[in-house]
Amino acid sequence: MVSADQSLQALTYAPPNGTADWCLVALHGWGANAADLVGLAPYLGLTNVCLLFPDAPWPHPQVPGGRMWYGFPSGYDFRSPHDFDAQADLQTSRARLKTWLLNLVQSTHIPLERTILAGFSQGGAMVLDLGSQLPLAGQISLSGYLHSRPAPPVSPRPVMMVHGSFDPVVPIALAHQANTELTALGQPVIWHQMAMGHEIPPQVMGLISGFCEDLKQSRGNTLTNPLG
């Protein structure tokens, strides 16, 4: 287990050839942890990409070993509004994750302009929230939602959103809302609505791989940094 600073711990998956000039950071959902997503890394088949999986700062109150970016009100079901911005745990997670991301270049030698931020469920909400504040290459929200009003991104980048039509946890209506609000800000959104639930099936893995490879080709691959 490694850390870019003392605020977050993360698991790292290095490319098989040992070199990387791009970075993909993936944020887990509520009640999961870094290990929940790192097992997917080999199936993405990404070349010259270092994958990082940070643990959220807070222990989950019901799931042993689980983590969370912030808590939900008792009985919350995503179908009623809630002021998450007022929660101190979300404010802390934002600050720690932003610091961790800004410090990544010191350990990976890969700039944020070649970094893609992805997340599932609550992790996807963090991507849509914090991602716009950083000069990222791209963002990926899987089964995500908006927990605060989106802000215009500090630099141009595409956002890929993937959501299940039959998601029993985060209603598809929230994903449509996020798509509409981001588009209204002039944010390019690549939208995929799929016949699935709250999950990451192989088809979605293919969409992630394709999105990352397309970004790499569009930005060029002129940097190569050995991973120590």
Q: What does this molecule look like?
A:
This protein has 228 residues and is α/β, with parallel strands linked by helices. The chain has one domain: 3-Layer(aba) Sandwich (Rossmann fold), CATH 3.40.50. It is built from 6 helices and 11 strands. The strands form 3 sheets. The chain has a 7-stranded mixed β-sheet, with helices on both faces. Strands 2-11 form a two-stranded antiparallel sheet. It has a two-stranded antiparallel sheet with strand order 5-6. It is globular. Residues 1-6 and 221-228 have low confidence and may be disordered.
Write out key terms for the chains shown:
Rossmann fold; disordered C terminus; 6 helices
Quick take:
It is built from six helices and eleven strands.
Total of helices: 6
Q: What's the shape?
A: globular
CATH class: Alpha Beta
CATH topology: Rossmann fold
Poorly predicted regions = 1-6, 221-228
* Subunit arrangement of the protein: single chain
Number of domains: 1
Beta fraction: 15-25%
Elements, N to C (H/E): EEEHHEEEHEHEEHEHE
Q: What is the SS-derived class?
A: alpha/beta
Spatial order of the strands in the main sheet? 1-4-3-7-8-9-10
Output the radius of gyration: 16 Å
Largest sheet: 7 strands, mixed
| CA distance, first residue to last residue | 14 Å
How is the secondary structure organized here?
Elements: E1 10-13, E2 19-20, E3 22-27, H1 34-38, H2 41-44, E4 49-54, E5 58-59, E6 67-68, H3 88-108, E7 115-120, H4 122-130, E8 138-142, E9 159-164, H5 172-184, E10 189-194, H6 202-219, E11 225-226
Parallel strand pairs: 3-4, 3-7, 7-8, 8-9, 9-10
Antiparallel strand pairs: 1-4, 2-11, 5-6
